[in-house]
Amino acid sequence: MLLTNATIATLQDDESFGLIENGAIALEADKIAWVGAADALPEAYRSQEAHDLGGRLVTPALIDCHSHVVFGGNRAAEFELRLNGASYEEVAKAGGGIVSTVTATRAATEADLLADALPRVDAMIAEGVTLLEVKSGYGLDRNTELKMLRVARQIAASRPIDVRTSFLGAHAVPAEFSGRADAYIDEVCIPTLRAAHAEGLVDAVDGFCEGIAFDTNQIARVFDVAKSLGIPVKLHAEQLSNIGGTQLAAKYGALSADHVEYANAADAKALAVAGTVAVILPGAFYTLRETQAPPVQAFRDAGVPMALATDCNPGSSPLTSLLLTMNMACTLFRMTPLEAMLGVTCHAAAALGETARGRITAGAVADLCTWDAKHPAELSYRIGFNPLHSRIFKGAL
Ligand code: DI6
Ligand code: FE
Q: Does pTM surpass 0.90?
C-alpha cells in the first residue's frame, strides 16, 4: 500500500510532531517500508496502488496503555445514588463500589464478559486505537481472574486490534479476606499469577499500591514472583496519596507507574533513572473530582516520558475515548498537544514494552490513522468530536 498527498506527523523524536507536508508512506506487509516527502519517494515504491489522502493528517495509530475494559455490570445506579446525595456508607450498603463489580464479574460467563466488553472496544477502535492493554482485577479469586484474562485474549481474536494483558490480582482485598490482605496475596494472588502465566495469559503484572489497597511490601512480594517468571511489571501508584509506590516501581524497573498524582520531584527522578513511563489518567481525576494534579513539570524537568490512557473502568473512569483523554490532559494538566499526541502513541507503546510501535518510521509496525484534520493539535483541541477518516492495522485498511 502507498499513501500519498498526506500531512504526516511522524513523531520521529520527542521534540516536535515531525511534520512532513505532501508526504508519502509506503507499506510492505505489516511494516512501514518508507516515509518521506512525496518527491523523494524511491522508484521501487512508485508502481504501488496509491491512496491519495487529499492532504489529510496521518499519525501513528492510537494506543490505550491502561484499561480495565473487561468487567461485569456497571455502576450507573451508584452514580445516580451519589448525585442524589447518598453518602459513601449508603452507597456501600446498597452494594455499590468495587465490591459490586467483583460480584457481577464473578457471576458473568466468559461470553457475557466478552459481549459487554466489545462495544467499549469498538468505541476505542472507532477513534483509531490498534493496541489496547487490558487488566484483570475484578475477580480476586483464581477462576474469575483467569476468566477475565481469557476474555482479554478473546478480544484480540474477535476484533482487528492487538491486546496486551496485565494481571492485576493485587487490585483490592476481596470481602472473604477482609482484614487479611497478606493472606490474600499469599493464598490467592500469587498462586493465581503462576496459574495465569502457565496458561500464557500474562504479558505484565500490575498492582494497586494505595492505603485502601496494598502497601509496598505486599506489592513487592507479587513483583518478586513476576521477576522470577520473567514478566515485566507496572503499578497503580500515588493516585490518592504518596506511600512509595513510584519508588518501588522504579526499583523494579517497571514499564510504567500509573496515575502518579501524588508523586513528587524525587519520584520523577527515580522514574527517569529507571526508564519508567509515567501514565497519566485524567479520566479518573475528573470522575473522582480530584484536585491534586500530577507533577507534569517535574516529569518534564526529569525527562520522564508521559503516556495517557483512558483507565476505562466502571468506577473511577467510565471512559472509552482516548481523544477526550487527550483534551482533558491538556485542559486539566496543561500538557501540550504534542505531549498528548506522544502520550497516546510512542510513550504508550513504551509503557507496554513495545519498541516498534507509535512512531512513523521505516521498520515500525504499520498501524496508522488518517484524520479529517490538517494539524495534530486539532486532535487534542476538540471536545466530543471524532475526525477519524481511516485506520490501518498491521498494514490493512
Ligand atoms: N484505581 C482506580 O481508580 C480504580 N482502580 C484502581 O486501581 C477504581 C476501580 C473501581 O472503582 O472499580
Ligand atoms: Fe486503573
A: yes
* Number of the ligand 1 atom closest to the C-alpha atom of 210: 7
Report the DSSP pairing between strands 306-308 and 2-9: unpaired
Q: Determine the length of the chain.
A: 397
Classify residue 334 as exposed, middle or buried by CB count within 10 Å of its CB (0-12, 13-18, 19+).
exposed
Distance 248 CA to ligand 2 centre (A): 17
**Relative to the CA of 71, which ligand 1 atom is closest?**
12
- SS3 (DSSP) at 304: coil
Report the residue among 313, 317, 319 best suited for mutation to probe ligand 1: largest number of ligand atoms under 8 A from its CB.
313
Residue nearest to atom 10 of ligand 1 (CA): 315
Task: Give 66 Cα–ligand 2 centroid separation in angstroms.
Answer: 6
Give the ligand 1 atom nearest the CA of 236. 7
pLDDT by position in tens, the chain (length 397):
999 999 999 999 999 999 999 999 999 999 999 999 999 999 999 988 899 999 999 999 999 999 999 999 999 999 999 899 988 778 877 778 898 999 999 999 999 999 999 999 999 999 999 999 999 999 999 999 999 999 999 999 999 999 999 999 999 999 999 999 999 999 999 999 999 999 999 999 999 999 999 999 999 999 999 999 999 999 999 999 999 999 999 999 999 999 999 999 999 999 999 999 999 999 999 999 999 999 999 999 999 999 999 999 999 999 999 999 999 999 999 999 999 999 999 999 999 999 999 999 999 999 999 999 999 999 999 999 999 999 999 999 9
Which ligand is closest in space to the CA of residue 134? 2
> What is the C-alpha separation between 277 and 306, in angstroms, rounded?
6
Q: Which residues form ligand 1's pocket by a CB distance below 6 Å? A: 98, 101, 171, 208, 236, 239, 284, 313-316
Outline where the chain has alpha helix (H): 43-46, 76-83, 88-93, 98-107, 110-126, 142-158, 181-184, 190-198, 216-229, 245-251, 265-274, 282-287, 296-302, 322-333, 337-343, 346-351, 377-381
Ligand 2 ion local residues (Cβ < 5 A): 311
Neighbours of 273 (CB within 10 A): 13
194 Cβ partners below 8 Å, 6+ apart? 225, 229
Which ligand is located closest to the Cα atom of residue 280? 2
Nearest CA to ligand 1 atom 4: 316
